[in-house]
Design a protein that fits this description.
Blueprint: H1 13-41, H2 47-74, E1 90-92, H3 93-105, E2 120-122, E3 127-132, E4 142-148, E5 157-162, H4 165-168, E6 173-181, E7 184-191, E8 208-209, E9 217-218, H5 226-233, H6 251-254, E10 260-261, E11 305-307, H7 319-325, H8 335-341
Antiparallel strand pairs: 1-2, 3-7, 3-11, 4-5, 5-6, 6-7, 8-9, 9-10
Helix pairs in contact: 1-2
The chain binds a DNA duplex (14 and 14 nucleotides) through strand 4, strand 5 and helix 6.
DNA sequence: TTAATTTGACCGGC
DNA sequence: GCCGGTCAAATTAA
């Protein structure tokens, strides 16, 4: 049987990437301008101004960090190791669904209860394996659909599919598995291209002062889970089990666990489990303080680190992209440099 | 009520 | 038969 694409003109990963990069750059630059305005025009900062400065600083960092992570993930970072992912056991969901559709057309019931779990393994295809130590937003909304203990591994593997699998036929999937605890490290396996057009836009930085720790604040990028965030503000209201493998209705949300920030903060983005594509409103913004280590056994924490690819990266390094990240009148050697300058 | 997660069952590849 | 990946009913949360 011939396998056909689910969309007539699938959006390539490169297009997705460039769109995300563009969005993040715009946000970052906008925030940078705000910061500069504050610095230049309000030397005697009031508390509210300082808060605004902090907020914009974090937004800038978030945007830059996200873009850098994307560039790494796409192969721009030459310092990262690239390797071929020799995964031989793939699931060809497309093929299965095609078969199912054909069977449905012909009166079959591939997805009926009698044939639960119908699919075919993908013999080959795109996959990207990434090892990460914390979280970044890849710009897509994911839904967890499974968890499995893997042989010779200490932690279960978690399976995520694109939220738009059913409404748009997006076949992208992601596997997340914790591979070490100290330092905490996760292995991500992305499979399939995102064909959904409803990209989850860059989440807003959620900033607020913790009642317990006024000297620091917390970030969250939830888009529509205010109650959860508020609950998380008080650890006593947030059961420990919520971070275990078997709990929490919001594991996919925890996948992008907000973190406490004291100094140059790693910036985390939190996927929204919602299917809408709206940027979070101000009412969505809150702060949440979660355990410093996102302890989900599922390893639902994602970020950038070493990036590997099973296929030759379609992207070539473009130093102009990096230059776009930086103010025109100053070149920062790193995000740390950027932060220190702030 | 709706949506997301959990988890045992099921499937195909090896 | 084992193993990893997926499905979908049941459960949980918003």
């Amino acid at each position: 049987m011939q396998v056909i694409s689910k969309v007539e003109q699938p959006i390539s990963p490169k297009n997705d990437l460039m769109e995300n990069i563009s969005n993040h750059l715009e946000r970052g630059q906008e925030s940078a301008h705000q910061i500069r305005s504050f610095i230049n025009e309000r030397l005697g900062l009031k508390a509210e101004d300082r808060d605004a400065l902090d907020r914009h600083s974090l937004m800038t960092l978030n945007s830059f960090q996200t873009v850098l992570s994307m560039l790494k993930a796409s192969g721009f970072d030459q310092d990262e190791n690239f390797m071929i992912n020799n995964n031989k056991r793939k699931v060809d969901v497309l093929e299965c669904l095609d078969q199912c559709k054909s069977e449905e057309i012909s009166g079959g019931s591939c997805l009926s209860k009698e044939k639960r779990g119908c699919y075919k393994r993908r013999k080959s295809g795109q996959s990207w394996t990434t090892e990460v130590t914390n979280l970044t937003d890849d710009g897509h909304a994911w839904r967890k659909y499974g968890q499995k203990g893997i042989l010779n591994t200490d932690y279960p593997r978690n399976y995520y599919r694109c939220t738009h699998k059913h409404d748009q036929g997006c076949q992208a999937t992601k596997h997340v598995q914790q591979i070490s605890e100290n330092p905490i490290k996760y292995k991500l396996i992305y499979q399939g291209e995102h064909t959904c057009k409803n990209l989850h836009k860059t989440p807003s930085i959620i900033l607020d002062e913790s009642p317990e720790e006024n000297s620091s604040f917390y970030l969250s990028f939830q888009t529509n889970n205010f109650p959860l965030a508020k609950r998380a503000l008080n650890p006593s209201l947030f059961p420990t089990s919520a971070f275990n493998a078997t709990t929490s209705s919001s594991m996919i949300k925890q996948e992008y666990t907000p973190i406490k920030v004291d100094s140059p903060p790693p910036v985390y983005n939190q996927y929204s489990s919602s299917s809408d594509n709206c940027p979070p409103s101000s009412s969505d913004i809150t702060s949440i303080g979660l355990p410093s280590t996102p302890v989900s056994e599922q390893g639902d924490v994602i970020s950038s680190a070493e990036i590997y690819s099973s296929t030759p990266s379609p992207y070539e390094r473009d130093d102009d992209l990096f230059s776009l990240l930086l103010p025109s009148d100053h070149q920062y050697a790193s995000l740390d440099d950027f932060w220190e300058t702030l």
